[in-house]
Write a structure and sequence with these properties.
The structure is a homodimer of 317-residue chains. Chain A has 317 residues and is α/β, with parallel strands linked by helices. Chain A has two domains: 213 residues, Rossmann fold (3-Layer(aba) Sandwich); 37 residues. Chain A contains 13 helices and seven strands. Chain A has a seven-stranded parallel sheet with strand order 3-2-4-1-5-6-7, sandwiched between helices. In chain A, helix 1 packs across helix 2 and helix 6 runs parallel beside helix 7. The radius of gyration of chain A is 21 Å and the shape is globular. At the A-B interface, helix 3, helix 7, helix 8, helix 11 and helix 12 of A face helix 3, helix 7, helix 8, helix 11 and helix 12 of B.
Chain lengths: 317, 317
């Protein structure tokens, strides 16, 4: 269908057009660029929430419960769930998504799973583009849900207005979260499964770590909310805390700086992605494949070959 | 000191020169390129082992025990331990390294921790360069130890000749490992802490998953070795399995294909890294910063700005 019709249909909230548009941005080709350029003026209205944490912390359940609550407030919710992919099999492993069945039938909810695809990356670019589609389609809330295990996953949740890190009271979980870089990106924490033994110790440990760490903007101290998401406990408090963070950011004029920082990261990723595409086009791959033998035979180092390839790239960029 | 002297000192196994050279490759600047080019002809003799797995699986302990065993065989061992870094604080979190104290004083062992630094990446490039330094310095065995949580960590262990995935018998651990892409990169598994309850079930679950999955080269079936690394159980078997895998690869002429694949990944990363460096030099950053306001004000999409930057890059590359 002609583009302007597609864009009108997105704006009207047509689900098939939204799904198609997200497939276009997932493909990451020139149509994707064209689409985002066209819809960009219609974006900027949705509030974006990032939910991350270690595997098994209950992120999907929390996303599910938050969505139900937002729906009661009559807000439309778009969910972008990013699953780590096996580099060999390709597709996302969608086990967790199954739990979302009870919200999946709601017309005011749109759920999309996205998979990491190989090391060429571009994952956060695609997830943020998909959020733009949902934003333009009039969703009030967009939730990025992703396991906090790699840089590109962290990039995604940092593209949110409010970022929530979900932990469970396993021994050492907060230390592992700190190692994975999750502590600094949290606007607040949800300590899920807090009916488990050891929950109070985990709470105290987390609080101790928070106290010794500097946070990004000094006046905001990330809170810890205790939750049992499967029993819907702590969900109201989570929504309240999102609201409190939003108000804090607005009141202190911090949104502009945050958005600028996010735009910078996003533009960099787009530029790098486009250059890579050109670089490893058929010509680039061929010249690389021809050079491999020279490295294996020990005649040239990988750095020699890399320089040859860059020289050749200069001529065809 | 002049370069050729440094290179001679590396070849002679001088520890200070090795440490300095690894710092040079960590800096990732032009000196690093020069260094690797110079030493490349002296590399290719070390056997490279990758050890990965989820946080807390006991990778450091296994590395430690393997190292002691290799030392008994009079082999020199270099260890490159890659720690995920907090994107805010910079440095690696070196808690696990403390455990290595008992091998750290051995002159036949060289341990180096490397940290991930921000999203510009280049981590696997640096780790592999560092392995080249150790290789040129005459280390017989090089162990890459890294937590299996992101693409760049997977890239590192895939640069090894034999890749070991360490798991523990926690419920669902093998499912999480599958999600993280660890199942397909394993030449074999070490099921550590296998004196814990649930160990036999974990073993069976892992074996079931292995049977339903295709492995890269059909004739090699990854084994599962039960271990209790803290008690030195299963370590002999691990070394034997490394040897068996090495022989299998040699016997079936699979090394050449593997090395070619690895060289390809490495060259790509070098090329991309060098182009990014040029791209985000002062000129590039400035032109990006100037454009940010246009995006925030909604006048231009990030894709418009990205195209402007690429146009400008063409002129200065």
């Amino acid at each position: 269908m002609p583009e302007n019709i597609l864009i009108n249909k997105i704006s009207a909230g047509d689900r098939r057009s939204i799904a198609r548009s997200i497939s276009v941005v997932e493909s990451g080709n020139d149509n994707s660029t064209k689409l985002i350029k066209e819809i960009f003026s219609k974006t900027g209205n949705a509030y974006r929430i990032g939910i991350t944490g270690p595997p098994g912390a209950g992120k999907s359940t929390i996303t599910n419960q938050l969505t139900k609550l937002f729906r009661k407030q009559n807000k439309k919710v778009g969910i972008i769930a990013v699953d780590p992919t096996s580099p060999f099999t390709g597709g996302a492993l969608l086990g967790d998504r199954v739990r979302m069945n009870d919200i999946g039938m709601d017309k005011g909810v749109f759920i999309r799973s996205m998979a990491t695809r190989g090391s060429l990356g571009g994952l956060s670019k695609k997830a943020i583009d998909a959020a733009d589609v949902l934003d333009a389609a009039g969703f009030d809330i967009i939730i990025f849900e992703t396991v906090g295990v790699g840089q590109s996953e962290l990039d995604i949740v940092q593209a949110a207005d409010t970022t929530i890190v979900v932990l469970v009271p396993e021994s050492g979980d907060s230390v592992q979260a700190m190692k994975a870089g999750l502590m600094e990106i949290a606007d607040f924490f949800v300590l899920n499964k807090s009916d488990r033994p050891g929950s109070q110790q985990a709470y105290t440990a987390l609080q101790t770590i928070l106290m010794i760490k500097d946070h990004d903007d000094n006046s905001w101290l990330p809170k810890i909310i205790k939750a049992v998401a499967t029993e819907n406990k702590g969900i109201d408090e989570t929504v309240d805390e999102i609201e409190r963070h939003r108000n804090f950011m607005n009141y202190n004029n911090l949104f502009m700086a945050k958005r600028e920082k996010q735009a910078k990261v996003r533009i960099k990723e787009i530029v790098e992605h486009k250059l890579k595409d050109k670089l490893w086009s058929e010509t680039g791959e061929n010249s690389l494949n021809l050079s491999l033998k020279k490295v294996i035979l020990g005649n040239f180092s990988p750095y020699h070959i890399a320089e040859e390839i860059i020289k050749e790239f200069k001529n065809r960029i």
